[in-house]
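pipeline: protein-struct stage 2 | run 1193 | G-protein coupled receptor 143
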Amino acid sequence: MASPRLETYCCPNRDVATQLVMNFQPEVFCGVCIGSASVSLLLTILQLLPKKGQSLRKMPKASSSSTILLLISICDILGGLGVIFRSSVWLGFPGFVANISTVNGTNVWPSAFCVGSAMWIQLLYSAGFWWLFCYAVDSYLVVRRSAGLSTIVLYHMMTWGLAVMLCVEGIALLYYPSLSSCENGLEHAIPHYITTYAPLLLVLVVNPILFRRTVSAVASLLKGRQGIYTENERRLGTEIQIRFFKIMLVFVICWSSNIINESLLFYLEMQPDINEILLKNIRSAALITWIIMGVLNPMQGFLFTLAFYGWTGWRVDLKWRKREIPWESMSSSTVGENAYPSPVNYQSNIHDSKKISTTDSQQTDEAISMLSEGNTSGDDRLTRSSPIYQGW
């Protein structure tokens, strides 16, 4: 799981709320984290591997969207590995981890492991948040024809730069001037929590706005491509809208428990006595959401692959061939022929259709293809039933 409580637990003088959740059934909690992360890791890799029996047309070109989706999955895989490693050490070597609580201990390795593993998990999941934000930005720019594969360099600089900067800044402020003095006041903890949750809240607030604008722009593109908005094009726009909805649904499911848990723990910290009887329900809710975080946070990797690609099946093809994207047939025909053949339903307007710019048509379909790239849940029915496909 990814929580700033992992870093604050490395402080020997940790706050009472952190002490409450970290000492609640640690063996059970670590076992839940290992199980959830392991299942997610295996299923995510299975989802990404090429499958037997898939059609294998050569894709016209790569896109920044497909690269970003792959990088999001890689961040989740590496973050899951960090969760498995950290929880395994906690389960296998309880005496080693117990030395973290010693303020004047001479063995620095327990503290180094605690800080290092927590930073690894936090950095990778934060980078995944930034990549998801970049995906929303890229989707909007692609429709506006202002982005392409070359912009991936800018996304790398922004994502890794901001993720590393915020992580290092939050850790430095938390542990300044040393581990023995961290968590002595809110001036240490508050900046750390802000830098941790800033990218998460950014995705929750900004991504839905960008996705909604992208869907509206897609509708305009589909209308402008043939001059009318047919039922097939409406279905295509709906499929893209559903895909964006699935992505945000997975994100909310996996990380809403973190926000709830953090709110409850902050409320408990402000109380003079955290063990009061009146606070029993709040303590129980905080512990329940803590366990839920251990289950849902690592599962993000697998759930995202379902939102991106749908269920790809069990039959793995280890020949490492590129699989065709079902939506790609719209743009592949334009790349091969450099123009659209006259649609079946518009033969009477063939002279008017010649006036349409071939370059604009190609860019329109390539933009729509990039947005739906990697999604196998939509079947081929939309592309087969489209006027472009029929004419070809």
